[in-house]
Design brief:
295 residues, mainly alpha, 10 helices, 0% strand, rod-shaped
Length: 295
Amino acid sequence: RQELFYSLYLAALTLFLVWGTAQWLLSREPLMGAFAIRQALALGYSLGYMGYSKVFWVDNPFVATPDTLTSTLIIAFVASAYRFDYLMLREHRPNRWALRTIDVLWKLCPVYYLLMLLGETRMALSINMGFVLLSPFLALLTACTARPSSAFTDDTSPVISKRALVSIYGLILMGLSVSAFPAMGLISAVEMSLQGFLFYGLVSGLTLLLMLQVRAQRLHQQRSALERQVHVAEQAARLETQRRIELGSFLAMLAHELKTPLAVIKMVLGAPSATPAMITEAGRSVRDMNAIIER
């Protein structure tokens, strides 16, 4: 039964990874790229946690042991989760100090690796675990300080509401509690909590995937609406350009047709003494001008 659970779990993570990678290739959004990296690292550390990495391990002093590789992937996964949270929450303009704290957390990854190189792997993982426990609380608190949708204009409003954002991070916090509290000895471990990190990876991955899917659909709707507005504006601009061209052509034609009658009238008015024939010709020119105007 455990092998079946592991197979379904890895299949789900692979599906999340494929979806995130495809969305990133289509949109090139940093948030989608961060999700794809997060899921790739989640799949990697899950393979190590389940013991599958030992199948590919060779006894070589220059190759990291499976345990070291798994520890490395866990730290990288946690850092990628911090980075994703930072990019996600940044769209909602929360409290800047809370957001900066999350930004600092993912940048601590090199410090953990330095501790591992110094032989303090247990210390690095313990500190990392402490920040893992802190991260969902901080992310939830940061989400609570996000601006409501009414504070944004239509062009800058995030596609995910503040209420949905807080609910998402509340679910992630619940999923992490199943794994982190027993791991830190805060509550007694039960059978379900022994697989807590796997449960957290699955819950958080599925929750974020659903959120990103809704976000992608709404972004697509916004882009479609914007494209329609641009199309209408371009069409109006083309009609205005055409109207000006037609108006220019009309004025050019009108000037051409009025040029001869006006020349005759000017000649009559400029003559020292107008003869009856000249007056008759001027009257005919005036009638011609009236006919042109009334057409």
